[in-house]
Design brief:
It is a single chain. The chain is built from 12 helices and no strands. The chain is an all-alpha fold and 250 residues long.
Length: 250
């Protein structure tokens, strides 16, 4: 057995991390968002946030074969790419912050970003105008910086997509494409900057099939007729995750 794999099997709370990954995949499959918002705060109970972010990025590979193909067909590709390209550029300075911060302040930062984002989603913040390409690029820059620093690539983009009047299927597809593709691009950057080590890589590979099963379960359960119910169920799970993952319980 490779040494990195053996170390991954010795990870504290491994079974709980895998179960959290399953739950995150289910929510991602039916709601189109929330995977990192659930996984990172809960997994950080057992491993440093940097490890949780590395595992989260690697498991994005699982979305390529499950949720990405149908999402690409339904997505507004020009809008999605206008945000994705600058986001990927800003991942590098964000990852530098992730790598440099101590564990406890980083966990508080992650919890704060999730709590603010969740509140904005639940209270139904709405944008009144259609954004220009320049403002879309600005959203991507912000998402990349926050995502690199915390592993939470989604909050800015989720808020933007949910605050519009687009068809729910298009909104969900745009979010899924952005999160999956940016997560894939994040993997080599995290590896080059020393966040993804060999044991982290193996831990992510162990979690990937679990995540794929979760996304397939969630995707099969998604019904656009009940989009509001699925969205609020996603909110509830995210809210529970951020409360349980607060550093005050450690």
């Amino acid at each position: 057995m490779p040494e990195g794999l053996a170390l991954a099997f010795l990870t504290e709370g491994l079974i709980y991390i895998l179960l959290i990954k399953l739950l995150a995949g289910i929510v991602y499959g039916f709601a189109g968002f929330g995977s990192a918002l659930i996984f990172i705060p809960l997994a950080s109970i057992f491993v440093p946030p940097q490890v949780a972010v590395g595992v989260m990025a690697i498991t994005a590979i699982g979305s390529v074969g499950t949720v990405l193909p149908p999402a690409l067909r339904a997505a507004d590709k020009p809008r999605m790419l206008t945000m994705l390209i600058p986001a990927c550029v800003m991942l590098v300075p964000g990852i530098f912050v992730l790598r440099s911060m101590d564990v406890t302040p980083l966990r508080w930062l992650i919890s704060g970003v999730i709590a603010i984002s969740l509140a904005a989603m639940m209270f139904g913040w709405r944008r009144s105008v259609e954004p220009s390409p320049k403002s879309l690029a600005g959203l991507g820059i912000t998402a990349g910086l926050i995502g690199g620093a915390t592993g939470l690539l989604g909050p800015v983009i989720i808020l933007f997509n949910l605050s519009g009047r687009d068809d729910v299927t298009v909104t969900r597809a745009n979010t899924l494409c952005f999160l999956t593709l940016s997560g894939i691009i994040m993997i080599p950057l995290l590896a080059l900057m020393g966040v993804i080590t060999t044991p982290v890589m193996w831990l992510g590979l162990l979690a990937t099939p679990v995540y794929m099963v979760g996304t397939l379960i969630g995707q099969r359960g998604f019904d656009p007729k009940h989009a509001t119910l699925f969205r609020w169920l996603g909110y509830a799970v995210i809210g529970g995750a951020v409360l349980v993952g607060l550093p005050i319980w450690s």
